[in-house]
Amino acid sequence: MNTPDFKGTHLWDRLCWAKENLEPVQSDYRVVYEDSIDECAKILVPDPNWMACALQGGILPPVWVYHELAKDEAQPDFKKHTRGYLLHETEPVGAMTEEEAIEYLIMKDCPQSVWQTWDEGNRPKMVICKKEQLPQTREWRNAWRISDELAA
Amino acid sequence: MAGKIIADTIETGAGADISTSYVVNGSAKAWNVHTQAGTYVLHDSLNMSSLGDVGNGRSQFNWASSFDSVYYSATVGVGEYNIRYLNIPAFGVSTNGNKTTAVLLFHSQTTANGDDDMLENNVTIHGDLA
Prior knowledge:
The structure holds two protein chains of two kinds.
Chain A: H1 11-21, E1 29-33, E2 42-46, H2 48-56, H3 63-73, H4 85-89, H5 98-109, H6 112-115, E3 126-130
Antiparallel strand pairs in A: 1-2, 1-3
Helix pairs in contact in A: 3-5
Chain B: E1 9-11, E2 17-19, H1 20-25, E3 30-35, E4 41-46, E5 48-55, E6 58-63, E7 73-78, E8 89-93, E9 103-110, E10 114-115, E11 121-126
Antiparallel strand pairs in B: 1-2, 3-4, 3-11, 5-6, 6-9, 7-11, 8-9, 9-10
């Protein structure tokens, strides 16, 4: 199925079209990251409908749009977004592979302090793995950390 | 057969006209059904990019289409039928810096266990999009 020409179409409307027309894709990839030494490792699970959009192409905005909105929101006098049009009017990105979609997702949903310096320091702050590689029970969940054995 | 209705207003039985934008703006802008127990699973959703497993009983929702402000509303429920009547589940959404226009932190507890993973959580979000 071809993606309609979505230039200028509200992102939410594009997502609704995808929900109606695309099969969800459950990814086996997981992103494990640590953004605080005081907190346990966090795990990102890709949304199956979002992944379908990423693989299809022509639906999602470029990731820099989210970074611009985050900058606006970080301003101390922020009340409401005034540049939401960036989500809707910026030309959507083309089709991605699953691996490219995970990279996009990292840049969108992981803190920049993690993915910009993930391999600096004594041990990695972020790991991409398959879900089968995660612990299969929730025991001691709040103590989970990225293994030291992954140290570069 | 595909069709399209274009209308600015809807007339009620009482003769009052309401704008169709009133109806559209009142629809849920995001929802999800997810499992925390075991490996987190996002079963189905609208307007999400990812689900975060951020600790025992703690989920993070990352929106695909951001809200215009942090004042959007979450309605949550549990689909886990074996929660006993004395083990009342409680849910919260964080506002202390963890709620942004792009992210919402969700927290589930039971009276018996404190922070607790649930077999099924149901979440619906209303609000205005950016």
